[in-house]
Amino acid sequence: MGQCGITSSKTVLVFLNLIFWAAAGILCYVGAYVFITYDDYDHFFEDVYTLIPAVTIIAVGGLLFIIGLIGCCATIRESRCGLITFVIILLLVFVTEVAVVVLGYIYRSKVEDEVNHSIQKVYNEYNGTNADASSRAIDYVQRQLHCCGIHTYSDWMNTRWFNEFQNNSVPVSCCKPNVSNCTGSLARPGDLYPEGCEALVVKKLKEIMMYVIWAALTFAAIQVFGMLSACVVLCRRSRDPAYELLMTGGTYA
């Protein structure tokens, strides 16, 4: 019965190490996705530390690949030193992922304040040219999130761009995609997105942060199983003289 348990623990451990390799790729993908997406919205928040969870999760992803390699080699070769190293590194990564979850929740709660603080400034800097970064950011957000203005399309009437051009219109990025020949004229409000962008930007950024939080939580749970399996192997290896090698079927003296 005990021999069956130790063999099962080693088999699970090898399988988990293969999962760690897959997890490394997924975590790096999630971190890169957050970076790329935040780049499109970076004009709407000023705190660069908001990206700390994404940076950390990419680093954890790279470390998980190394952990998977160490774990597989240590399990197959029955290396006590390797398994101890594996457990220690896995524990450190687990603590790091817990920190990512905590930071994710902290910065997720700060997103709304960040956007509220900066969005008015961004809209005031809009000049309608593609060469201007703020203008590109606003046009991108309005098209992607199907919104117009801060709270509603009429907010454009309070911007410097609207007062300079005085053509009673908003940017064409406010136009609904199914409306042809839309010029952004306020005389035809039915052609424009009725919802403002502030709430949608906040919602989008919070969703992105939740991807990081759930990814960290999921793989932290997997790592707990990895640590438990490694500890079972280590304990039985020390106490059981008839310890069975996973690959050769021999015994450990």
TrEMBL record:
PROSITE patterns xref list: TM4_1
Subcellular location per the Swiss-Prot or TrEMBL entry: Membrane
Keyword flag Membrane: yes
InterPro entries: Tetraspanin/Peripherin, Tetraspanin_animals, Tetraspanin_CS, Tetraspanin_EC2_sf
Main location: membrane
Regions crossing the membrane: 12-36, 48-71, 83-107, 208-235
Keywords: Glycoprotein, Membrane, Transmembrane, Transmembrane helix
Record-linked Gene3D superfamilies: Tetraspanin
One GO CC annotation: plasma membrane
Membrane topology recorded in Swiss-Prot or TrEMBL: Multi-pass membrane protein
Main function: Regulates the proliferation and migration of oligodendrocytes, a process essential for normal myelination and repair.
Entry similarity comment: Belongs to the tetraspanin (TM4SF) family.
Oligomeric and partner information: Interacts with claudin-11/CLDN11 and integrins.
Protein name per Swiss-Prot or TrEMBL: Tetraspanin
Organism: Oncorhynchus kisutch (Coho salmon)
Source organism phylogeny: Eukaryota, Metazoa, Chordata, Craniata, Vertebrata
